[in-house]
C-alpha cells in the first residue's frame, strides 16, 4: 500500500500475542497444502506483510515456528468430539469414531499434512505429535468405561494390564488415522467403516485382559 508519492505505508503494528497468533494462523493455512517442513518462512512473512527477520523476533528459530503451528493444528484436529451424556460405552466410542471420520472428510489435506509432519525430521515436531496422541488415550479409555485404568494403589498385575491397554489404544489411534486417510467412500460406506472401527477398538482392548 502506498501513501504520498515516494512513500510506502509500513505494515500495521500488532501486539506481540496478536502477531504470533496471526503467524500461526498463516502457518495453519499453508499446512493444508504442504508438509510442515516444506513451509517457507519467506512466504509466511510475505502473507503477514512483515519481513522474514521480524518472524524470528516472535519465533527465535524455524523449529519454534513449526512447533507452534503443529501444536495449534493438533489441538484443532486431534481433539475428540464430546460424547453424549447417558450413552453406553459403545455409543460413546462410536461417537468418537464417527466424529473423527467426519473431521478427516472435511480436513483431509490438512490432517494428512499434520500427521506426516514428522517426515521433516524436526524432533520437537515429532515429540509434539506424540504428546497430542498420548493425551487422547485416557479420553478414549474413559469413553469406553475401561476398568483396567488403575491408580497408584492397584496391584502390579492390574497396573500392567492398564499400561498394556494404554499402549494398545495408542497404537490403535495411529492405525485408525491410516485407515481413515486411506478410506474411499465410493467402496466402503461411512457406516460400515465406523462400525468396523468401533468393534475393533473394543476387540483390541479385550485382548489386554488375557
Structure commentary:
The protein has 210 residues and is mainly α. It has 2 domains: 16-74, Orthogonal Bundle (Arc Repressor Mutant, subunit A); 83-207, no CATH class. 66% of the residues lie in helices and 0% in strands. It is built from 9 helices and no strands. The protein has helices spanning 16-31, 41-48, 52-58, 62-77, 89-106, 108-115, 123-143, 156-182, 190-207. Helix 4 packs parallel to helix 7 (123-143), helix 7 (123-143) crosses helix 8 (156-182) and helix 8 (156-182) packs antiparallel against helix 9 (190-207). The longest helix has 27 residues, at 156-182. The chain is elongated, with a radius of gyration of 21 Å. The chain starts with 15 loop residues before the first helix and ends with a helix.
Continuous helix count: 9
* Oligomer type: single chain
Question: Mind summarizing the main beta sheet?
Answer: none
Write down the overall geometry: elongated
Walk me through the topology.
Blueprint lengths: L15 H16 L9 H8 L3 H7 L3 H16 L11 H18 L1 H8 L7 H21 L12 H27 L7 H18 L3
Helix pairs in contact: 1-2, 1-4, 4-7, 5-9, 7-8, 8-9
Amino acid at each position: 500500500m502506498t501513501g504520498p508519492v515516494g512513500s510506502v505505508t509500513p505494515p500495521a503494528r500488532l501486539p506481540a500475542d496478536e502477531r504470533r497468533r496471526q503467524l500461526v494462523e498463516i502457518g495453519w493455512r499453508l499446512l493444508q497444502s504442504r508438509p510442515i517442513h516444506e513451509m517457507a518462512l519467506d512466504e509466511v512473512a510475505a502473507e503477514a506483510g512483515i519481513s522474514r527477520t521480524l518472524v524470528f523476533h516472535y519465533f527465535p528459530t524455524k523449529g519454534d515456528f513449526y512447533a507452534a503451528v503443529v501444536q495449534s493444528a493438533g489441538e484443532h484436529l486431534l481433539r475428540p468430539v464430546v460424547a453424549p451424556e447417558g450413552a453406553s460405552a459403545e455409543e460413546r466410542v462410536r461417537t468418537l469414531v464417527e466424529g473423527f471420520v467426519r473431521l478427516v472428510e472435511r480436513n483431509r489435506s490438512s490432517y494428512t499434512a499434520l500427521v506426516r509432519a514428522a517426515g521433516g525430521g524436526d524432533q520437537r515436531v515429532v515429540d509434539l505429535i506424540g504428546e497430542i496422541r498420548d493425551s487422547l488415550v485416557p479420553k478414549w479409555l474413559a469413553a469406553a468405561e475401561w476398568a483396567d485404568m488403575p491408580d497408584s494403589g492397584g496391584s502390579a498385575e492390574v497396573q500392567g494390564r492398564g499400561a498394556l491397554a494404554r499402549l494398545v489404544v495408542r497404537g490403535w489411534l495411529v492405525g485408525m488415522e491410516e485407515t481413515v486417510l486411506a478410506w474411499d467412500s465410493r467402496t466402503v460406506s461411512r457406516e460400515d467403516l465406523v462400525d468396523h472401527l468401533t468393534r475393533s477398538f473394543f476387540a483390541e482392548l479385550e485382548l489386554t485382559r488375557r
